[in-house]
Amino acid sequence: KNAQGQYTVTLIEGDGIGVEISQAVKDIYSAAKIPITWEPVDVTPTLINGRTTLPQEAVDSVNKNKVALKGPLATPVGKGHQSMNLTLRRTFNLFANVRPCKSIVGYATPYEDVDTVLIRENTEGEYSGIEHTIVPGVVQSIKLITRPASERVIRYAFEHAKNINRPHVVVVHKASIQKLSDGLFVEVANEVAKEYPGIKVSFELLDNTCLKLTADPADYKDVVMVMPNLYGDILSDLSSGLIGGLGLTPSGNMGDTVSIFEAVHGSAPDIAGKGLANPTALLLSSCMMLRHMHLNADADKIENAVLKTIASGAENRTGDLHGSASTSHFASEVIKNL
Ligand code: NAD
């Protein structure tokens, strides 16, 4: 925070629709007079000694500001540099990915009472990137689970449950099959749970959670779910589908000192550059960011205007929500509703 009461936040606009949805955020923040000064950085990767590396200015900016808002970054499939999302999470040790998913009043979906909170381990598991060919036609991919990474994300889940007053942590796993790796995750969860006698802990197999979540999401209203990396990736998209899709769901990548807030969705190459993208997910991610910075009134102001706009009718909603509005029309309606 500077002498004028402004906070500087690093902005990574991202690829594809990232530019369009970031513009919407900037326009709305400036109209709402939110005390944020954006510091835009370029994260185009460079390869140093065969490792994907972030530009130093970007690293310095995030380390200085401690908080960043990020649009989606495209990852080439099967070749080229490593995922920049992974590089960012590793560089800043963003060990917990918090993904809330709440029904939007005024946008009807088969269930009206979805209110899930999912915490995904963000640094290892199936994303350890250790893969090799043993002989042609046989590849091996290593899922890495460690006690320290499991412990810190599980402890984060219990702390988060305490902070948001949810009495129950559900540990989602597949230890019936991945006996050692998920077995360790479950073992650590049992240990950490003992430190939180006021919070109930239970254990669920991933397939069972998918069934229960789609059969009756209201069962998860008082729950914080925590799980290894890939399960969280998949289950959070499933939760997004329940409330109307990827255009709506925010997330926070939390570390000990730095946090990066981003939409759950990707760069949407199919609609990029056409003015069709829904900026809601990035806007709601920015609201998570404002609350993390204790700027709760500013977060409420933005969130209420966004929700009011979505509820105001199909002419003000983007195509993913069966509406006809462009990104910029949606943003100007949000500004009117501030
Ligand atoms: P995607 O999320 O980009 O798109 C999936 C579908 O959802 C598409 O039909 C898209 O048009 C739609 N969609 C997504 N966001 C939307 C929005 N805001 N408004 C309206 N419609 C929206 O997933 P994908 O196509 O599998 O991935 C595209 C690229 O994004 C890949 O390179 C992938 O690696 C990357 N990606 C990045 C992140 C990230 O930066 N955190 C996350 C996921 C995927």
UniProtKB/TrEMBL annotation:
PROSITE patterns: IDH_IMDH. It catalyses: D-threo-isocitrate + NAD(+) = 2-oxoglutarate + CO2 + NADH. It comes from Babjeviella inositovora NRRL Y-12698. The keyword Lipid biosynthesis does not apply. Keywords: Magnesium, Metal-binding, NAD, Oxidoreductase, Transit peptide. This is Isocitrate dehydrogenase [NAD] subunit 2, mitochondrial. GO terms for cellular component: isocitrate dehydrogenase complex (NAD+); mitochondrion. Residues 8-334 form the Isopropylmalate dehydrogenase-like domain. Its EC number is 1.1.1.41. SMART domains: Iso_dh. Octamer of two non-identical subunits IDH1 and IDH2. It holds the Pfam family Iso_dh. Its cofactor is Mg(2+); Mn(2+). It comes from the Eukaryota. SUPFAM superfamilies: Isocitrate/Isopropylmalate dehydrogenase-like. Gene3D superfamilies: Isopropylmalate Dehydrogenase. GO terms for biological process: isocitrate metabolic process; tricarboxylic acid cycle. The lineage of its organism: Eukaryota, Fungi, Dikarya, Ascomycota, Saccharomycotina.
